[in-house]
Design brief:
Aspartate Aminotransferase, domain 2; Aspartate Aminotransferase, domain 1; alpha/beta; 2 domains; seven-stranded mixed beta sheet; 13 helices; homodimer; three-stranded antiparallel beta sheet
Chain lengths: ~375, ~375
């Protein structure tokens, strides 16, 4: 199916990212009618920030013009939020774009990238696509949590980039301030640390690291944020990365022009001001997560503690059939085989009715 | 400014694409008030397809969900339009994305890309970024038109990709059926021909090649279309490429997930049905181009014949000052130094009042 004679050598054998299945695709496949619960992509079931909605309706009037390719206003707004310079901000089409561009900008074939196993698949894919080698350190604490000591021990002068997601996807767990500080003490100044905070807004613990203090101290750290989760803007593709100016300049060099579109820029700027919506999403997520966990606690499954808007459910045996059966009942979850967790599914918080429906169907399936 | 120790080797010395300047940027720089005419990026001054506007207002309601990463409905709609299979269609974030991905998917360092000089800058940039060598054949007919015979003569077994824009940007000229047929007769079956029709909807001549017949005959040709020009959707980033299934599969392999956003997909699908808007844009462009050309014909400048929505004005001497002076008067055009035409500016059709204003200011400047 691929043009073998034409394809770039390092791409032979490359398997691209597999997204959560869209509602309409599942509807077609199973001939389903009625409501389908998509609990597969960690989207916000409350919808989109109302301020962002308003901004988008206004922005569509101007889409006959190209986006500002420098994203001047967007970058300035983000910069003001964190007290950094605007040239330290990269305006992104979602954080997947930044992860990919890190590979394109900074990795040569043969370079080494360091991360955890069972983490966001894009880290490994970005490395592979660039022809680099991705070293993945096994997880600890039952196999659900980053082994920061192990990652630290694996650092060497060949390590060009370390990708860290905190809280992490797909296990939902996190590493602590103490663990991160110990890691940062050992990281060579030349190594780029990519710190991905996609689920930041859902964190309830006090014991999360502060990556910003390292950025402000001049360390080579790139902090990633997305508008796809708490802000409810997955569909327009918006995110940003904040880091040293030269790292951001490197990303700017390799990106495709006009990467962040007009509607996304307007929506994300408005969303940044919508603290009320983020707070509401935080409270709702906390409450529904508690409901999900409580409703499943007597089942023979393991659910690691989470600081995100989703739970990982490890059924201790192959879970492919569960994924299929849930789909037949109009519930889309994410199978975790591709992330090294073939026994697990990942389920995000949906509207309460969807969570109730999921619990009901899942309990029946797992106890059958 | 760049992280030299970290940057991928082949990127040292790479200069990224320079976009047309946005209105607000010029306003800030010159402290301008009132209307600013942006005639720099070949956008549609009539705005956006009304059908697309309606579709976008509806689509924003669903942006809390990720886009369909397979763009199933969009690709099927395009496929039906051309009588091809949906796997032959690549759903793109503008045609610049496709050009870039051709490099990422199909070029190894040292490979050869063939194109014309003074053509769309992204062809060369995509080649350079991939570490390939870009051979640019000089233009003929005063230096404004593709030399298809020259390009044909330069083909050899090392030529991996040939990029052709027809009509071409930034000169506005075109190559004929006869010229293209003679070229296709000599192209090796293994070479990928990328045929970029960004300005298709503005063509008035009958003598344009038909790239589709080669695709249908099984040739390795990838046809690029954009929604940024006639459809008035530059701001949302939408386009597509149609080619052999394996070439499209290669693009799918290297793209960033969710490359085409929800709003863009909805807008572009609706725009495809808006023949009325395209027809209106065609008529308007034809009329205003005639006005521009007529109004400048007595001046000591060369304006090559155009099949697009813009004109190239070659002033026969360095034109950087003109670009600056026009900006001071609230008119943004595109300087052409980066395209090997330091004596020229490129000016697209604006609203009639903007065209009148441009003619007035330009005449005064050139005759001063």
């Amino acid at each position: 199916m691929l043009p073998k004679d034409l394809l770039r050598e390092q791409l032979c054998g490359f398997k691209p990212y597999v997204a959560g299945r869209p509602i309409e695709e599942v509807r077609r496949e199973y001939g389903l009618e009625g409501r389908i619960a998509k609990l597969a992509s960690n989207e916000n079931p409350l919808g989109t920030s109302p301020k962002a909605m308003e901004a988008m309706c206004e922005a569509v009037k101007g889409v006959y013009l190209y986006p500002d390719d420098n994203a001047y206003y967007f970058r300035n707004k983000v910069a003001a939020r964190y007290g950094v310079e605007w040239e330290q901000v990269y305006a992104a089409a979602g954080s997947v774009e930044v992860i990919e561009l890190c590979g394109q900008a900074f990795l040569n074939p043969g370079d080494v990238v360091l991360t955890s196993e069972r983490t966001f698949a894009m880290y490994q894919l970005a490395a592979m696509k660039a022809g680099a080698r991705c070293v993945q350190i096994p997880m600890i604490d039952g196999g659900y949590r980053y082994d920061m000591a192990g990652i630290t021990a694996a650092l060497n002068e060949k390590t060009k980039i370390v990708f860290l997601a905190n809280p992490t996807n797909p296990t939902g767990t996190w590493f602590t301030s103490e663990e991160f500080d110990a890691f940062m003490e050992k990281v060579p100044e030349s190594t780029l640390v990519v710190y991905d905070c996609a689920y930041d807004e859902f964190v309830t613990t006090d014991d999360m690291p502060d990556p910003w203090k390292y950025l402000k101290a001049g360390r080579r750290i790139l902090i990633l944020k997305t508008f796809s989760k708490a802000y409810g803007l997955a569909g327009v593709r918006g995110g940003y990365a904040v880091g040293p100016k030269d790292i951001v300049a490197g990303l700017m060099l390799v990106r495709i022009p006009f990467n962040m579109n007009v509607v996304s820029m307007a929506a994300c700027m408005a969303a940044l001001d919508d603290e009320e919506f983020v707070q509401k999403s935080y409270e709702f997520t906390k409450q529904e997560l508690a409901f999900l966990i409580e409703s499943l606690k007597d089942l023979p499954v393991v659910i690691p503690p989470t600081q995100t808007n989703f739970i990982l459910i490890d059924t201790q045996k192959d879970s492919k059939w569960l994924f299929e059966e849930l789909q037949k009942k109009g519930i889309i979850v994410r199978p975790m085989g591709g992330n090294g967790l073939p026994n697990a599914i990942r389920v995000n918080v949906g509207l309460h009715e969807d969570n109730v429906h999921f619990v009901e169907v899942f309990r029946r399936l797992i106890l059958s």
